[in-house]
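Need residues for this backbone.
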């Protein structure tokens, strides 16, 4: 029996992660055609306005902006509570236009100016307001507009503490509500899948006793919370009248990756019998810094910490990827498996997010579901990675059991060899030493009984003693033969078994016939002896317990 080979992940395994990442990007790019196009949007003129005051103090004098129009209708909010203000004009469009913000800010207000006069006070809505203040009961912020008119200008006032990209579109009311209904169904479907993966990981942890599943569930749950905030479902359905919860929960969602993922990665890579903090304080750096930032964000403006927490998370991803690459290159199968999940979910999601937020790349109707689809990939791949890790652990247990059996077999063989050596020595001593001495004693007793002088009584005693000595010598020879059959060494296995059958037939009530055929080159001396002992025991049991008169070997 040869020792088991060490468990190693297939060399092609990282390619599987790259394939999964490519599949994610292709789905994001081309799935819009499968889901159906969004309702058409209409062009409009948008110009930045220099204004830093509150929305309630805006006047229509700001509508005469001389700034050049923006090249695109997506803008990135500033950092802090300084508002972004824009003047918007519709040259043409439907009779019932709706201005839609495809990201939810803290506050968005719209002032309608007609002929330089405010038609009504600004309408404000957003995450800083209860959901009941929204014009439309939808996850997105939208403002109904008047029919296009050359003298109508809209002033849009947006406040968003953390940097965020805001695509603006103009649709018909019917088109907006139809698209919202489609997106809402997809949001609920993706959210349900992610919530199921959270519960699935918790159940797997309870069933398998693997804490890595718990850390994976907490990481997924934190991203799920962040997704509910970004898609607007949380503020609309979960805490509609408590807008103050939104921004602190943003920080909690952002920090989940560095609060729980380090423990997941460590528990994944390190054997289960090693304590959680075996790597020292290096593991605690990530969650401790995140926890401090979360606590600070609860008592100070959250936007001070949104960017640092995001940067901390990105740094953790980079460090973790470097460690996984190094471990995978030296043959660590756990690192190779985890690298598949990282390359298939986290890296492409970061690429897609950067392309959308910083380069303005459009993913069509899939754009609102960018984070959700990424989280579905992440939850699925990391859960599968854990399942594969358990399989690797079972393989290692099987290898350890095989190794133990190998050692046991070697020890058993050594014990048998030792016993056989001792039996051979005892048989040789009994036959060569004690046997010869008893034979000599028997010969002298017989000679003494035949000599002149002793009376008839002494002669009978001497002959009886000589007979008893001969019987003792025969018994010693029998014991010597059973300890180590000399016929096996001199005649070979086949003839030794024939002699065993013949001797048993002559001595016992069972006649034993035989039909034997052996290839002497295939068996060594130890195997020959073991086979001889097996048949010896079989013949003895047959004679003692079968009650048969004939047997065939």
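Answer:
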């Amino acid at each position: 029996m040869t020792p088991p080979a060490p468990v190693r992940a297939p060399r092609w395994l990282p390619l599987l992660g790259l394939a999964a990442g490519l599949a994610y990007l292709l789905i994001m790019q081309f799935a819009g055609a499968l889901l159906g196009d969004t309702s058409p949007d209409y062009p409009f003129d948008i110009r930045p306005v220099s204004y830093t005051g509150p929305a309630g103090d805006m006047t229509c004098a700001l509508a005469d902006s001389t700034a050049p129009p923006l090249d695109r209708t997506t803008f990135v909010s500033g950092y802090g509570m300084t508002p972004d203000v824009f003047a918007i004009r519709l040259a043409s469009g439907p009779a019932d236009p709706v201005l839609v913000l495809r990201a939810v800010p803290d506050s968005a207000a719209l002032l309608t100016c007609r002929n330089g006069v405010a038609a009504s006070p600004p309408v404000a809505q957003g995450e800083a307001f209860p959901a009941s203040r929204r014009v439309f009961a939808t996850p997105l912020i939208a403002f109904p507009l008047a029919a296009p008119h050359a003298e109508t200008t809209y002033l849009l006032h947006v406040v968003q503490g953390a940097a965020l990209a805001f695509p603006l579109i103009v649709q018909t009311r019917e088109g907006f509500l139809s698209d919202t209904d489609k997106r809402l169904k997809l949001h609920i479907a993706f959210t349900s899948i992610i919530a199921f993966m959270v519960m699935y990981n918790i159940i797997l942890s309870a069933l398998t006793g693997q804490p890595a599943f718990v850390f994976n569930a907490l990481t997924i749950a934190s991203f799920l919370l962040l997704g509910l905030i970004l898609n607007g479902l949380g503020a609309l359905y979960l805490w509609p009248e408590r807008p103050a919860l939104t921004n602190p929960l943003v920080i909690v969602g952002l920090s989940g990756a560095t609060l729980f993922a380090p423990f997941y990665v460590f528990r994944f890579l390190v054997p289960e019998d090693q304590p959680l903090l075996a790597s020292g304080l290096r593991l605690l750096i990530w969650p401790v810094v995140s926890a401090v930032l979360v606590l600070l964000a609860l008592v100070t403006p959250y936007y001070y910490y949104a960017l640092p927490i995001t940067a901390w998370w990105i740094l953790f991803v980079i460090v973790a990827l470097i460690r996984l690459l190094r471990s995978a290159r030296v043959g660590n199968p756990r690192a190779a498996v985890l690298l598949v999940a990282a390359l298939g979910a986290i890296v492409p999601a970061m690429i897609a997010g950067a392309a959308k937020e910083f380069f303005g790349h459009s993913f069509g109707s899939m754009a609102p579901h960018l984070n959700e689809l990424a989280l579905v990939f992440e939850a699925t791949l990391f859960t599968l990675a854990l399942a594969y890790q358990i399989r690797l652990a079972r393989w290692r247990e099987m290898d350890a059991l095989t190794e133990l059996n190998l050692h046991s077999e070697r020890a058993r063989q050594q014990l048998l060899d030792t016993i056989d050596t001792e039996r051979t020595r005892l048989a040789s001593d009994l036959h060569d030493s004690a046997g010869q001495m008893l034979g000599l004693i028997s010969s002298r007793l017989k000679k003494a009984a035949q000599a002149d002088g002793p009376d008839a009584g002494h002669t009978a005693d001497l002959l009886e003693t000589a007979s008893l000595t001969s019987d003792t010598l025969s018994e010693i020879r029998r014991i010597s033969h059973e300890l180590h059959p000399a016929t096996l060494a001199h005649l070979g296995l086949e003839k030794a078994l024939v002699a065993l059958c013949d001797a048993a037939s002559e001595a016992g009530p069972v006649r034993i016939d035989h039909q034997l055929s052996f290839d002497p080159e295939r068996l060594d001396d130890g195997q020959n002896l073991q086979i001889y002992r097996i048949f010896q025991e079989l013949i003895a049991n047959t004679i003692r317990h079968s009650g048969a008169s004939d047997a065939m070997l």
